[in-house]
Design brief:
This protein has 343 residues and is of the alpha+beta class. The protein has 8 helices and 11 strands. Helix content is 53%, strand content 18%.
Length: 343
């Protein structure tokens, strides 16, 4: 279309220049004829310096220049190149005629238009901002408890070369603004509203995977292949973050108090257990002594008492002093030493 417009302009210019040059040259010839000497060798009174001739040649030169310029533009309009990672789109009067998927030179008729469509992996960020411009390239969503959620997400995708024609015919070259970005924004809202604001960040991987899967299905209908969807950042309003921070501090203080109570209870339990253990020990010792005494009483005889007393005497005992009027538990006849009772 551009070449046709340029061709029409060039033709009109050439016609105008040709007509102007023709009339200028004719005027030049007339003035030159009048300035020639007459047959009787007398010169005419008119003077002519030939300036119309120069004007005529200038107009002709301009016509030749525009012809060469038209030829150059025609060649440029006919020869194109498909770059690697792109497909060539050839259109005739606005209608797609053919698609060239191989890289290299492409020859078309000059009145056709040529465009390229990138089929390599592309990364798409939104141009919108959130929170009064604080967060660039941001999608604005919300949680189930009506808190704003600001998300920076990147979509990695590529256009299916076999579906370029359908994509251009059904949507157009600005398919990112028409289809991709609005769907990302809508799907993000659908997924974040499933969670409370405090649970959005902990579930970011779940949200990311859900958005990626839904975009894969929906954009495939338009010939757009989704490779991945990445969440670069999730943020909230300052008021919400301050409330969360205060709650976290309160929870930490409550946990610290609970730990102190637990420590005190453990110490009290330890003291009680120690006391109980000591009481049990005394009771067991007393019971043991009682059992021992009972056993001793049941088995005690005069002969045993005498034997134990003799066993406890030192080997070099020769004299033993006893209180007056006391019975001695040892038979003195069994001793070789003299026993002198005390007075």
């Amino acid at each position: 279309m551009t070449w046709l417009i340029w061709t029409i302009i060039t033709v009109l210019l050439l016609v105008g220049l040709f007509v102007a040059a023709h009339f200028t040259w004719s005027s030049h010839k007339k003035h030159e004829e009048k300035a020639k000497p007459k047959g009787d060798d007398r010169y005419s009174g008119e003077h002519y310096d030939g300036e119309l001739r120069y004007i005529a040649w200038t107009l002709r030169g301009l016509g030749v220049f525009f012809v060469f310029l038209w030829m150059i533009t025609t060649i440029m309009a006919s020869v194109h190149r498909v770059d690697y990672g792109n497909v060539g789109i050839i259109k005739t009067f606005g209608s797609i005629t053919s698609i060239r998927t191989e890289a290299g030179l492409v020859l078309i008729v000059p009145w056709q238009d040529f465009e390229q469509e990138n089929v390599q992996t592309q990364s798409l960020l939104t141009e919108g901002t959130c929170y009064d411009g604080r967060f660039p390239n941001c999608y604005e969503a919300f949680s189930i408890d009506s808190n704003d959620v600001f998300i920076v997400g990147v979509l990695n995708f590529h256009v299916d070369p076999q579906n370029v024609r359908a994509l251009r015919v059904n949507i157009g070259p600005n398919y990112k603004e028409k289809v991709v970005l609005p769907r990302i924004n809508q799907i993000l809202k659908d997924e974040t509203v499933k969670f409370k604001a405090v649970n959005v960040a902990p579930n970011r991987e779940k949200i990311r995977a859900a958005v990626r899967d839904r975009l894969t299905v929906e954009l495939a209908k338009d010939g757009i292949a989704v490779e991945d969807f990445l969440l670069q950042n999730i943020d909230f309003r300052d008021e919400f973050k301050q409330a969360v921070e205060k709650k976290a501090i309160a929870d930490q203080e409550a946990e610290a108090a609970e730990r102190q109570v637990a420590v005190a209870e453990a110490q009290a339990a330890q003291v009680a257990a120690t006391a109980q253990g000591a009481a049990d020990k005394l009771r067991i010792e007393a019971q043991g002594r009682a059992d021992a005494n009972r056993t001793i009483n049941e088995t005690l005889t005069p002969e045993l008492i005498q034997f134990q007393a003799i066993q406890n005497l030192s080997d070099n005992v020769r004299i033993m002093l006893l209180p007056a009027d006391n019975n001695f538990i040892i038979d003195t006849s069994s001793l070789n030493s003299d026993i002198v009772p005390s007075q």
